[in-house]
Amino acid sequence: MTAPVLVVGEALVDIVSNGKPRNGRNGSKATPGGSPANVAVGLARLGVPTELVTRFGTDPYGDQLGAHLFGNGVQLAPGSVDPGFRTSTATATLDAAGVAKYQFDISWEPPALKLNRGCPAVHTGSIATVLEPGAEAIHQFLTGLADKPVTVTLDPNARPTITPDPVSTWAAVRALAALSDLVKLSDEDCEFLRAGSTPDEIAAELLTVDRTKCVVITRGGDGAIGVTRAGRVEVTAPEIQVVDTVGAGDSFMSALIAGLQARGLLGAARLEGLDEEALHAVVDYAVKAAAITCTRHGADPPTAAEHTSYWS
């Protein structure tokens, strides 16, 4: 049996509000979320065994998270459920185009981080990589993977409300990117972290480090680009009716990892053999997974069967 992909990072509850009163209420709805947790769910739905290292409580929000993760087949690492921990939340307000803006009530300190034998990939990102004390634990963990046969992927998923200083945040991203084989950013990440630089300039900057072999940058409705030292691909996004964008980037990330695993590019391979044809295929698969999520409310990534049937 294939060892699970290891995802490290926050699990929280998204309190999504469109700002429109509904039956005398403000239209808010609490749904399971957190970028790493969303990636873990997305991977599991795509048929990739997945273990999540996170921390949440046994309060009502924590019970909701646990039911969601278990119900989608995500394994939880020991210590991830902590009765003494208050489950974190993120309040997401949707604008007229369905684009979400977030405010967070979060603390982050992961349980012990351990690499299981045969693990093909470790993914981390978002708030967990910048919020102490957990951020340092993740940095130390990734540092220890330098000589291990595992592929490391990173999605910084910048949150200016958590880390308002782009200079120090970019320094932290660069430090983690140097320990990662693949880095995925959004155009919003690029605008905040490296204002005035083009996506290709940012990709080139990250690819100067030996460990980093691929940079993928999403561009919302304009699709995504993938860049390696050997080439560059550009994938357009299909036309869809957007409901909201909550979790779209996480669906993209999970599909990207799943696509790489399907082509045997994870584990000790560490993306060796990722040519332009393979890169275009996996980025296209990820763009289409994100598009499906945008047609639904909240962070609701597609299953493998839904992905196939939707685009057939």
TrEMBL record:
In this chain the Carbohydrate kinase PfkB domain maps to 5-302
Q: Pfam families in the record, alphabetically? A: PfkB
Tell me the GO molecular function terms: ATP binding; fructokinase activity
UniProt-listed CDD domains: bac_FRK (cd01167)
Q: Which UniProt keywords apply?
A: ATP-binding, Kinase, Nucleotide-binding, Transferase
What sort of enzyme, by top EC class, is this? transferase
**Top-level taxon in the UniProt lineage:** Bacteria
- EC number per UniProt: 2.7.1.4
Protein family per UniProt:
Belongs to the carbohydrate kinase PfkB family.
* Record's protein name: Fructokinase
Source organism per entry reads: Kribbella italica
